[in-house]
Amino acid sequence: MKNIIELKDVWKTYDMGEMKVHALRGLNLEVKKGEFLAIMGPSGSGKSTAMNMVGCLDVPTTGHIFLDGKDISEMGESELAQIRGKKIGFIFQKFNLLTSMTAKENVMLPLTFQNLSRSEREELAEQALKMVELGDRMYHTPNELSGGQQQRVAIARALANTPDVILADEPTGALDSKTGSSVLDFLRELHETRGTTIVMVTHDEKVAHKADRIAYLKDGMVVNSLDEDTTKKIEIQNKEMQKNEA
C-alpha cells in the first residue's frame, strides 16, 4: 500500500532570542494510505509540531513533507489552505466549537471555504451528524451537549468534506475515561469501515494502542520505543491530568 504521508529529514527550529529551540530534529515518518497511526511521546517530544506539519498548519525549517505525493513543504499559504480544506480533517482536544452556533452550523462552517452552495453544505453537515449518531441533536448548541457529544460534533466537522486524512490531537484529553473510550471506538470503526487514514497524537499508552501502529517520538525524532524514565514521566503526566479532571 502506498504512502499518503511522508516526512523526510524534517527539522523545525524556533528562534527564541539568542537561543534556538529544535522542536523536530531530522524527523522521518511514513504513513500508509488507510493506516491508523498513533504518535506518542512525552510533553516536549515534538508530537504537536509533527501534527502541525502533516496538517499543513506549519512548514518545516528544512526537510520535505509529502502529502499524497505532493511536496507541501514548499507551498504558499493559499495552496496549504486549499489542501487543508479538501484533504485533511482535524479533531482537537478542546473541540473548538463556536458556542453561538448549533451543531449543524459548526459542521457547516469549514465547508464555507469549499465553493459549495448553502444547500450542499447543509446536506453534508446533516449526513456527517447522522454518521456520528447526532441526527437528533443537530439544532442544539454546544452548551446543550455533553462532552462526548461535543467531541462527536467535532468528528462530524472533520468528516463532512470526506477528507483523505483525519488528524486527531489528543481527542480524548478533555473527556472522562468512559466517554473517551467510546470516541476511540468510533474512530476505530470509522477506520475499519471507511478505510480513512487516521493520525492520532497522544501521550496516553492505552489510547495509543487503539491504533494499528505507534510511532514513538523523543526529542523531535522517532525512536524504536520509549525508555523507562520517559515512560514514567508519561505515567506521572497521566495521573496529574486525571487529578485535574476529578
Any idea how many domains?
A: 1
Helix content: 25-40%
H/I helix tally: 8
The major beta sheet can be summarized as: 6 strands, mixed
What's the end-to-end separation, in Å?
Answer: 43 Å
What's the name of the CATH homologous superfamily? P-loop containing nucleotide triphosphate hydrolases
The CATH class name reads Alpha Beta
The class by helix and strand makeup works out as: alpha/beta
General form? globular
Would you report the number of β strands? Answer: 10
Residue-averaged pLDDT, rounded? 86
* Topology as a string of helices (H) and strands (E): EEEHEEHEHHHEHEHEEH
Structural write-up:
There is one protein chain. The chain has 246 residues and is an alpha/beta fold. The chain has one domain (36-53, 83-245): P-loop containing nucleotide triphosphate hydrolases (Rossmann fold, 3-Layer(aba) Sandwich), CATH 3.40.50. It is 37% helix and 27% strand. It has helices at 47-54, 77-87, 103-108, 118-131, 147-159, 177-194, 205-208, 228-245; strands at residues 3-16, 19-32, 36-40, 62-67, 70-71, 88-92, 165-169, 197-202, 213-218, 221-223. The strands form two sheets. A six-stranded mixed β-sheet has the order 6-7-8-3-9-10, with helices on both faces. Strands 2-1-4-5 form a four-stranded antiparallel β-sheet, with helices on one face. Helix 4 (118-131) crosses helix 5 (147-159) and helix 5 packs parallel to helix 6 (177-194). The termini are far apart. The model has no long low-confidence stretch (mean pLDDT 86).
